[in-house]
Amino acid sequence: MSSRQGGTSMRLSRRRFLKVSSAMGATAALAGRTAPALGARPTSPASRQERWVPSVCLQCPAGCGILVRVVDGRAVKIEGHPRHPINEGKLCPKGHVGLQILYDPDRIKGPLQRVGPRGAGRWQPIGWDEALEQVASRLRQLRQRGEPHRLLFMSGRNRGQMGGFIDRFVAAYGSPNHVGHSSICADGSPIAHYLTQGFKAYAGYDWDRTNYVLCFGAGFVEAWRPTTRLLRAYGHLRRGRPIRAKLVQIDTRFSVSAAKADEWVPINPGTDAALALAIAHVILTEGLWDRGFVGDFTATASRFRAGEAVPSDAFMESLTFGLVAWWNHVLKDFTPERAAVITGVPAATIVRLAREFATTRPAIAAGERGASMQTNGIYNRMAIHALNALVGSIDVPGGVLVQVSPPLKRPPAVVQDDIAKAGVKQPRIDYAGTARYPLAGKVYQGLPEFILGEGPYTVDTIFLYYTNPLFSSPAADRFRRAFEQVPFIVDFTPFLSESAEYADLILPDHTYLERWHDDIIYPSLGYPVVSLRQPVVEPLYDTRSTGDVLIQLAKAIGGSVADSFPWRDYLEFIRDTFQGLHEAQTGTIVAPSFAAFWDRLLQEGFWAHPPYPFGQWERVLHTPSKKFEFFSQALQHKLEELADQEAARRQVSREQALEDMLRGLALQARGEAVYLPHYEPIRYAGDPKEYPLLLNTYKTMAHAEGRGANSPWLQQIQGLHVGVRWDSWVEINPDTARALGIRDGDQVWVESPLGRLKTQAKLYPGAMPQVVNIPFEQGHTAYGRWAKGRGVNPNAILVNETDHLGGLAAFFSTRVKVYKA
Ligand code: SF4
User: Fold this and answer.
1) Which atom of ligand 1 is nearest to the CA of 63?
2) What whole-number distance in Å separates Cα of residue 375 and Cα of residue 273?
């Protein structure tokens, strides 16, 4: 890499690296040298130029530190960075296969222009200058027509500051439409945290010090984040300390996490809130709540008794708000017996879990995609998270942490001319934040319908960054139909994905091992960690960093858009914002000048500022009441504000507008319960008589979120637990299979109201009798030789159901039937 890009580039043996990084504070000046040209071959081992380059994995958003061994300009090995706080030297299987991403023979090798019909795969090379001018010219014309809002920027894995950089681009350009993909990921958790604690992000958990874990629907040791952190935590929880913590996995299938847990609690899909509410009921009726955090009755003889309301002034809350309302409107009747009918979990088990959870402190109740990406996902996650408050596990050792942000320097304010100011005032194309999806920040999976006519206007241009909606969305074929109607699509992908095949222009990005990119810690440890993804080799092909390309486009558009991007390239932007880390003069790198700070960062790979600051209540309880809110005032205010707007627009009463809105959101609750964690029955598509089974989709350890099928090594380990490689399967309970006349290995059809898929049946005792399970990752129709044409994509038959309150895609709302092919 050039010295302009890298400041001081390095030659560093692994042993030397370990020595240097363990010194953590030494300002060892390492000899800089430029990497040899690609393809150069040594004449003898002695002449080899070898170095280990610290960087950051991007095979998932966990942000693990890596060391890449580079010999004569070729990356030959990836190892875990031994001192990186997230992974401490470990990598999950996806991290090891990074070289197969870098050296994938089917990478896009330069800008491409489509010459055939969409999806036909006919392309011709185009130079960068011509391609960029084509895009800039179109964007300039859109602004000249006063229609910048018709630019839609869809993004996926926005690590570090890239999401904010894209926000900046669309704001400067004049569009309100940056639609990230998290509404098809796990948005239910951040929204639940926002409603109860006032922070809209994933939570961190102090796994190392907890004694008991209730894990609702998250693949603890296989597909949750950060995977390596969780794997290490699992080992530590179980054998790394004197007291062995207990892990209870609550899941609809016997997953690897369930197998590795102390106890598997099978639960009917989408009923997690009912279980959590009954656990809360037991904790309160048995007097097991944390009095320091929650408070207590004002009269010592008072108690929570099943079925009996409590006077609102009988209980004095400490750091919580709305407990009595929660009890009176939801919990008092939510007995274990009632929950048992809904969840399928025996009442005695619920009582035991509640007692264990409340008395084996510190304890954590965590949940993720399996609990949250349902039609009732927000309330599921609220109910689960509320258990943490009941036992005082908020912001204490062994409990829930709120991730601290790093002290990055804020970039200058976006410059907007009148065109941009008018554009960003237009309604969003996805109706996020409106009465249709009140708590949503984005509604990615709804875009096809909005593009095809339901939206407030038509879309002229789509940018795609690190996202593949034609593969990853429920009822994915809707995106194909929608994209056919969009005049201009640009994809920044390094790979010819299903969505890229529908683009007009491909401006290929570098892979993560070739580019400068920052990485900010995924919420986990609590304290801030910022890592530097530096190129380990020169770019192999004629590709460019998308950050650089956005700056080039902004400059080509000119005016205030260009003024908003004063940096020469994305590296300069990173260096500019990292000035804040240096100026903080704290953390693991403290240096007298920014140049010295940057050199240390290049050597060490990350900056961190441990330990986690417990007890910052104003930061971690950022709600209207400054307390943990069982009764969410944020939710109440939002719905009432929207109801008032609707009432004024339609000339009806606020009550009528609110009622209409709740009906539109398909909520059954009314009154106070709307603002409290409660149980909403899940909505399913498909007549149960015709489609008697429920379809559950899940992720394996090899799942790189739709981006891992182009790795031969990951294909080799995709289905180890059922003995399937390079293919898909459907897991069926043996009794169910027997009743259907299906044997292990039979080819079967899995049919939903949307269509059908043919795959092999695996008889799996860990499948619940009424649920069949298909893993994600396979079923590509594009994406290179290793991925294309293998297995099936369950998204093809998943209906597009949504938790309207939060705009979440509901991945578990599809009924199916299964029969022999
Ligand atoms: S957990 Fe994620 S970031 Fe870490 S090694 Fe695995 S894929 Fe890479």
Assistant:
1) 3
2) 12
91 Cα to the center of ligand 1, angstroms = 6
DSSP 153-217: EEE----TTHHHHHHHHHHHHT---EEESGGGTTTHHHHHHHHHHS--SPPEE-GGG-SEEEEES
Q: How far is the CA of 818 from the CAs of 353, 356, 752, 756, 815, in angstroms?
A: 35, 39, 9, 9, 10
Angle at 578 between CA 576 and CA 580, to 5 degrees: 100
Q: Is 57 in the pocket of ligand 1 (CB under 6 A)?
A: yes
H-state helical runs in 629-699: 633-650, 654-664
Question: Ligand 1 within 6 A of 60 CB?
Answer: yes
Probe ligand 1: pick from 57, 96, 159, 531, max atoms within 8 Å of CB?
57
Q: 310 in ligand 1 pocket by Cβ < 6 Å?
A: no
* Distance from the alpha carbon of residue 812 to the mean position of ligand 1, in angstroms: 26
In the chain, what are the domain boundaries? 203-401, 633-675, 693-820
**Architecture of the structural domain at 203-401:** 3-Layer(aba) Sandwich (3.40)
| Run means of pLDDT, 10 residues per run, the chain, 821 residues | 38 48 35 34 69 95 96 96 96 94 97 94 96 98 98 94 97 97 90 97 95 95 90 90 93 95 96 98 98 95 95 96 98 98 98 98 94 94 98 98 97 97 97 96 96 95 97 94 97 96 97 97 96 97 98 98 98 98 98 98 97 95 98 98 96 96 97 98 95 95 80 92 94 98 98 97 97 95 95 96 95 96 96
Closest CA to 174 of 412, 414, 421: 421
Instruction: Kindly give the number of the ligand 1 atom that is closest to the alpha carbon of 91.
Output: 5
Name which residue sits closest to atom 4 of ligand 1, judged by CA.
Answer: 64
Omega prior to 535 cis, within 30 of 0 = no
Instruction: Give the nearest ligand 1 atom to 62 CA.
Output: 3
Q: Domain 693-820 belongs to what topology?
A: Barwin-like endoglucanases (2.40.40)
Atom of ligand 1 nearest to the CA of 60: 2
